[in-house]
């Protein structure tokens, strides 16, 4: 993956170059010499912002009932307490 750096002026003068560079990796756009923005391909953006599933989403998936899974039962014992 190549990282390209362009100034804001270079971006304004040649947007096509920036878009082509974004196919190979992020394009850092600088403003007065300091990084200010990053241009990504849409695929890279989607990969970075993909929603992470939580356990509730996974348990609600269709077809989950077809999976055989029977976790072992856990029994918790009690201990006498000494308050002396």
TrEMBL record:
InterPro entries in alphabetical order: Antitoxin_Phd/YefM, YefM-like_sf
Any single Pfam family the record assigns to this protein: PhdYeFM_antitox
NCBIfam families assigned: phd_fam
Family of this protein: Belongs to the phD/YefM antitoxin family.
Role: Antitoxin component of a type II toxin-antitoxin (TA) system.
Designated name of the protein: Antitoxin
